[in-house]
Design goal:
2 copies of one chain form a homodimer. Chain A is α/β, with parallel strands linked by helices and 420 residues long. Chain A has 2 domains: 201 residues, Rossmann fold, CATH 3.40.50; 146 residues, Phosphofructokinase domain (Rossmann fold). Chain A is built from 13 helices and 15 strands. In chain A, the strands form 4 sheets. In chain A, strands 3-2-1-4-5-12-13 form a 7-stranded mixed sheet, sandwiched between helices. A 4-stranded parallel sheet of chain A has the order 7-8-6-11, sandwiched between helices. In chain A, a hairpin with a 4-residue loop joins β12 and β13. The two termini of chain A are 38 Å apart. In chain A, 59% of the residues are buried.
Chain lengths: 420, 420
């Protein structure tokens, strides 16, 4: 059996280790006895549809090695979800056509829930249409909302960055509180699942450490109880550090960030959840606040990635290649935990249909009974994930992050009107 | 001549290396032949006025060594400016009384412009009242707005953190731009001087790197020209990363953050400069934006401190003790640059009156002619400051930051009604 080619593509919001996954896929593919060339889709599935395939053989070995440390999506990511097989039939067919034209028999898609929906549909479509294309999902999302897998590569690094940010900013707050700021609010990403906000719980080792309160999308905000908690903390230790998930909701289910508060003129103030929480605290308690919104920084902070996360990311990439070689199709690699401390894990896989369109929110046993912090069970879950450092090389005081040339393979098919 | 005691105190917004300054002062004091005990003011000058002096001999050697790596103000900082000698005569007298009661003849005040005003006034008051108290200033401020000194300890570390943040977030933006976010806005601290925003210029090594535009308080914002620049950048490379200083001003001199924009209902939207700039871009160009506000994180990120900054901070602390031993009074230690590359510097001092209440804004030759970026001369100035890393120890995936016990020396004087 001759070697067949492979395509790797990135999808959805990027992480600080998505390129480490790519590295795993690419190195395993290059070392395998069943993959010939490995290409990458320029901007995810767009690149496959548009036949814009990056020729990885044109990249320097240095740049390929550099993928292990490069934040962002080295090949470009996408926000494009394919609809059902009937509605987007032409797109699915085009993908098969492009794969066929380039002798591609393996497709590795690195993404989250939506991307696994694509993995599932594309593998089904391929089977139905007599194609031998193997489609494999490689997990990725800072949101950590993929079911079955112990964690999603990318989450632990974002978590570690937020933990460190909370530890450091809390020290600042602690030193300023007597004359100045009393409350600090850190806004973490997470629209529907609060894993990233929750992770900051690890920063609190004693009562002086923040966060003193964590607001999750999983717990509807009771403003009066929240204010009582803030006041109690400030009265006791002089200050209060709060982590708020961007997806925190009002009792009526609307997003806090949408509801806003009124300014002095009665006008609605819009802004993120962090700003809204700050405004509420000023209004209800008259306390001086400060707030940080790390935004993209939390998911691209490769300088503060977790070593465990980096290892899992590369391993997931390598495993996807191994399983594809065994003929697996329409599956996503999963991380299975067998022990908390010391952390032990291995890789398995599951049908991508078990992952697609499902969001794993934080289970009840991880949330403290009052809804304002995390339990010991959560700490046991989260602690091992942020362990170990993986600093990039520094030059001139700055991390060395390579950038790829992204030279494209010559197109073999006529252009395809893909709209978007 | 017998040994006399010393007090060290922290003032104003803290930095990631203010405790490294403290370390320099304390270690030099402990090693000197003219200082007996060294105390620290709890919450800056408040602790001196209230006779709340931290007994450093009660701290473990480990905690003292840990000062080199601890973010925030280990002894508590303050926002308290003494008025003129006549108006606050009772306060100045009280400070002398407390010093006398504890046999203190050396006072080291670690702060910025306002703190140097206190250094100047207190040293003048002491001289006028026959006290032999020596008052020395140790420079500190992330704002980098102190004149004469080449840099202010704290600035370079905040700068390095922002440079790394911009490098990483730009990679994220670059990978998402085709289908999603086109503009990323990073808001840096700096109300009147834009040094921190300016520093991010170092992140841009080629045209794909952000920041593509830097908005400084030193340049009044021409909205139309700014939008043209954003559009030009997005048209050319697909995205645009912007650094905005929190103190950016409108043509009429008002802060951008105050002016706000109107939402769809015609209501004023309030928020920081970063949010305002994002809103403007959405309104004028209809582009999707993301924005980060590091806030306290930028000035407490000890995990990303500059080695040069750490070295200068400790050296400034040690020098202050050395100069006080030589009888200097009412001076602040200054860093004098003698060469850009490789960076060479040494320490001198200047009358605190030359520093007090003066803000060093960015000079014209450092700002590109169009007002939207920095010059090569600025890069030559800023580059050496961010060089070298100084990672803290990590344990359980988190940086090890000690906390002091802050046991107070027994008060010898009646309580003092200080109001504030």
């Amino acid at each position: 059996m001759g070697k067949k080619n492979a395509i790797y593509a990135q999808s959805g919001g990027v992480t600080s280790v998505i390129n480490t996954c790519a590295y795993g896929v690419i190195k395993a593919a290059m070392a395998s006895d069943f993959i010939g060339h490995i290409y990458a889709g320029l901007n995810g599935i767009n690149g496959v549809i548009e036949e814009k395939l990056i020729d990885l053989s044109k990249e320097s070995p240095e740049a390929i090695e550099g993928l292990k440390f490069m934040p962002g999506g080295a090949f470009g990511s996408c926000r494009r979800k394919l609809r059902d097989l009937e509605k987007d039939k032409a797109l699915f067919q085009r993908i098969l056509d492009v794969c066929k034209a380039h002798d591609v028999e393996y497709f590795f898609y690195n993404g989250g829930n939506d991307s696994m929906d694509t993995v599932k549909k594309l593998s089904d479509f391929a089977k139905q249409n007599g194609s031998s294309l193997k489609v494999m999902g490689v997990p990725k999302t800072v949101d950590n909302d993929l079911p079955i897998t112990d964690a999603s590569p990318g989450f632990a690094s974002a978590a570690k960055y937020l933990v460190v940010s909370m530890i450091e900013a809390s020290r600042d707050l602690e030193s300023m509180a007597r004359d100045s700021t009393k409350v600090f609010v850190l806004e973490a990403m997470g629209r529907h699942a609060g894993w990233m906000a929750a992770a900051t719980a690890l920063a609190q080792r004693d009562e002086k450490d923040g966060p003193h309160i964590i607001l999750l999308p999983e717990v509807k905000l009771d403003r009066a109880k929240f204010m009582a908690k803030v006041k109690e903390t400030v009265d006791k230790i002089g200050y209060c550090a709060v982590t708020v998930s961007e997806g925190v909701k009002n009792p009526d289910g609307t997003f806090l960030a949408e509801s806003g508060t009124k300014d002095a003129f009665g006008h609605a103030q819009l802004g993120g959840a962090g700003q809204t929480v700050q405004d509420m605290i000023k209004q209800d308690l008259g306390l001086k606040t400060h707030g940080a919104i790390p935004d993209y920084c939390q998911r691209s902070a490769r300088h503060m990635s977790s070593k465990v996360d980096v290892e899992q990311a590369e391993a997931c990439g390598r495993k996807a290649v191994e399983l594809a070689g065994q003929g697996l199709n329409g599956h996503m690699v999963t991380i299975i935990r067998t022990q908390d401390a010391p952390y032990k894990w291995h890789l398995e896989s599951t049908d991508a249909g078990n992952i697609a369109n499902t969001e794993k929110v934080i289970p009840k046993e991880f949330i403290r009974e009052d809804g304002f912090h995390m339990t010991e069970a959560f700490r046991k879950y989260c602690q091992p994930l942020i362990e170990g450092e993986s600093f990039p090389e520094f030059k001139n005081g700055m991390p060395v992050y390579h950038r790829l040339k992204k030279e494209l393979v010559k197109a073999k098919l006529p252009p395809f009107e893909s709209k978007k």
